[in-house]
Protein 1
Amino acid sequence: MSNNDHSTSRRKFLKNTGIGVAGTIVASTLSVTGSVAAEAKNISLPDSPHVSKTLLKMAKDIYPHEMIQNKYYQKIVDDLAKQQKGLIDEGVAMLDEQSIAKLGSPFLQVSYEPDRVRLLRSIEETTFFIKVRTALMFGLYDNPELFPLFGYQGSSVEKGGYLNRGLNELDWLSE
């Protein structure tokens, strides 16, 4: 490979994205732990309410769960917006630009969910989308406060594993 070649090797790509994902995982996991009351008091919005509201709508379109309160989504995306301010501000601006170009209004004003989902699919390969999706994935599904909503009892290792605790209680498998 010559010095003028600007292509990225697979190894370099995986190394760089691995570091970014690992950082997001740690930050997201740390940001969603703690008591609910403490979290509600500690939520600080990004500089722009527009960014915060756009990220919330985006979050609920990416991982739509009616049983999860907005505060859980909002905490994750607002923390990400503070940690990755430049990327998130640019990403929301890009999302709004594409939304206006394709749908005639900013993302927040698009009321038809399938239109928003199509728009999000068109940007799913961008660093912005990947960061938001990854933060949400770990922030929602690795949050012990939300485990009961998903029917997850938590780790079983400390209790002897699943063989003698819950494996035979699966009601969705046919006999």
Protein 2
Amino acid sequence: MVIVISNNLFTLLIMKKSTITTWLILVLFTIAVGVISNMSLSMAAIAIIGLSSLKFIGVTFYFMELKNAHVFWKSSIIIFLLLFSIITLIIL
């Protein structure tokens, strides 16, 4: 248990500032989705899908380093995200 905690702490300390900033933004988006899901808003589904889409883009382009990939892969991810979001909102 101690090894896991110290390993995670060491990993956090050697992260770049931009990585930590991106990670914190993703955590804030996750908290915002949780707060929005507990409210009774008429547009809650759209807000949740929107924030989740931003999180998806942040993870794929930053942490999976898709920003350095070929244009085909970048566009295929964006098209997949748009289709998934639109279909999900239509079903709701």
